[in-house]
Design goal:
about 950 residues; alpha+beta; seven-stranded antiparallel sheet; 32 helices; 26 strands
Length: about 950
Amino acid sequence: MNDENTGLSGRYDAIVAAEMRHRAKMEAALNRAAVIFLSQKEETFEAIMTAGIREIADEFNLDRFSIWRNSRHPDGLHGGQIYRWDRESGGTTVPTKGLEDMAYPKFAPRWENLLGSGEIINSPARILPEEALLKSFGCVSVLITPLFFNNIFWGFALLEDLRNERFFEDDDIEMLRSAAFLCANTVIRADMEREIADANEFNSAILDASPLGFTIFDNNAKVIGCNDTLAELLKTTKKYYTEHFFEFMPEYQGDGSKSADKAIELVKRTLNGEKLVFEWVLSTSSGEPIHNEVTLVRAMHKGKYVALGYQYNLQERKRRERELARAREAAEAANQAKSAFLANMSHELRTPLNVVIGLTNLILEDERLDKNIMENLEKINNAGTTLLSLVNDVLDLSKIESGKLALSPVEYHMSSLLNDIITLTITRLGEKPIQFRLDITDDLPDKLYGDDLRVKQVLTNLLTNAVKYTSEGSIELKARCVREGDTMWMEASVSDTGMGIPRESVNNLFLEYYQVESKANRHIEGTGLGLPITRKLIELMDGKINVESEYGKGSTFSFRIRQGFVDDTVLGADVTEKLKSFSYTDNKRIVTQKLVRANLSYAKVLVVDDMQTNLDVASGILRKYKMQVDCLTNGQAAIDRIKAGTPVYDAIFMDHMMPGMDGIETADRIRALGTEYAKKVPIIALTANAIQGTDKMFYAHDFQAFVTKPIDVMEMDAVLRKWVYDKNRESAISDTPSTVDDSEEKEIVIEIPGVDTEKGLSLYAGDTGIYLPLLRSYIANTPATLEKLKAVSAENLQSYVITVHGLKGTSAGIGAEQVRAQALELENLSRSGDLQNVLAKNGKLIADAEALVAAIKERLQQYDCQNAKPRLKAPDQELLAKLGECCENYDMSGIDEVMAELDKADYEEGADLVEWIREKIVVSEIGEVAERIKTIRN
Ligand code: ADP
């Protein structure tokens, strides 16, 4: 028994001992696996899993070990194999294909409840309801243990024996459950790490791709990382930058602070919670400075503050700014070139227009003119005026476009504005059977504040169109004013019973150069600029324009503009009635009121202009006032004249653009002479330059006024009244009839080979009184010019340019088209330094010009014979003496009288002298004439 007992107990002990050994072995295996799983000494996840599971599998005779994870789907809970270890394949393999995602209800309907409630499944497969499933992948016995994390049914571990049918023992199960948990934990952690790594990679990819440089500092202000952008910018690697942060900044920043100290200070301030934005200079590995804007912010990383620095490279922005500045400069230069071009162009166009309009106006005043000539002259005058308004329109438009059109508001009278417009409109109506009505009320304000000229322009444009596009019926101008605080809204409309505008064209009316296509207005002059300018002017005055039109019936253009309120006085019944009745007088052309010129014979004025023609026009207009008008062709002469102090001029009319010293400099120098007279004498600019701002410029240079060319006689009259007219002196003179000789030379036909006399004459409105002296001057002066041209060489090519330029001008002035063209070509050639071609073509120019001079001379001799004057031996000595005296006293009327006497005869000797005197007088070099006469007489 004992034996037996002993034997029994010994066997039992042995079994227990064996059992305990087995258990200890199992525990040891589990511990080893735990160490492997938890310490993660192996390098990769795969290696950890393989090594860890092998410890368990060997000890517990497992052939396969897989981890399954649950996921919630619309059709219920799914389980999917996410990890599989397989003895057969010698280690870890990827999840079995087709088992990655299986719906519990489909593949093992019991498991969801069973495992979900914490039960395990421990059995040979053969006796399980899931036998078919398990057998399908070769499973013989199985231990399935659910996995819970945070009390959630996370998934299960499937431990398989592919050889023996068995139930796992309870003790083993306990340990296998721990092993399964460890294993799943490792899978989960690996997953998380992978996700974190992915996220990190994603973050750094974003950071690296960012256009901003990026630096991260730890809480000791030490750099711990940067992005690719910054490394590339600094031409280094991330690692090198991180380790040698201070090498990538110049020693000092722009504000003189030491870079390293300042960097640490700024990072520390950020770590203390400040958010900083500042400019910072970095330097590349090669020492090139790079301007940055840095934003420093604080963030939390692993429970500690870090500072994040974002560097925005200003280099690019600075470059772009520089580029923009350059582009702006270029645009401004182009714009300036355009303005200059327009200024020049307007100058060039206005100068001949000056001649056309100015001279025709003068001639038209002569009532003795033949009716035919009068009519033709009127046509020329009208054409000139049209052309001038076109030039003005183009200028206006370009000024508006370049934003240069500024309003010049003044206080103005409504009555005079309306009066001017009515007068103009009635003039335009001519003989057309159109009734013009004015619809105004007597409560219109008497005064407004605004740019009356621009308001007039708007109304004139609309009324001109109404007249142009209406052949009969009526035109009505309606005006009202509505007060709103300091604003007076002027609301006006122009209605006509004209041709109207087709509906489809109405929207295009305000496009530049747009004209309604229609047979009916094919013969009507226009450019399509009027309405765009009108609209832009209205918009400039904060207003709007509106059109209503019915094709074939008529149109109404209405608008409102902002004007300033001045006071409460109104037009009143009387003025309103007068204005209205004025417009109701019969629609015949009202002859423009004749200008009544004051007698200014007590006054002396000086005109300075480099162009003889302009001098002729200006002095022609001024002489009508019986003034002494002296002319000079350059600024220096004017300064000398004023410096000499005699005669004392009442005003100086000064051309703006002159070669050498221009009008402005001349005026400045005159003022600088310092005498009371030089400081005070009114200087009035004559300018063909209508670019915005010239008025200010003139005033800034101490001009008293300016008159635009073509000279408007009314404008000139106003200027003279203001600056020259003197009541006291007027009363002292007896109103003698004009001494100006108005007689014109007889109409003649002049034919000269090489000269387009018609063209030449047309420059002076057909005035042979101007043209013939010019021809005489041409033949007198050209030979000397040609002598100079003959001497052309490499050394004097520059002065050749000037001389040939002069010949071009004088030839153009008489209509010598061919010589002008040749001279122009040679001017261009010499300007470009092409001596060879100059030499090749100079000879022909000289020969042709000489032939021309000869031809003119011959023709003039014929002419003189036909108009033969008495032939005297020499100029009368008495007359010369008188002339000398007049010259010494600057007595211009006296000089004119003597010259007229001298001109009555031809002279055998001294003809050159008379010619010379005449030229000197034209350019007002009267002192020289006095000198010469003195020497002759002594
Ligand atoms: P322009 O009259 O110089 O051609 P505008 O810009 O003043 O240029 O006018 C543009 C076009 O609008 C004109 O060509 C004309 O066809 C049309 N138009 C303007 N006003 C009227 C009007 N009152 N009645 C009919 N058509 C008009």
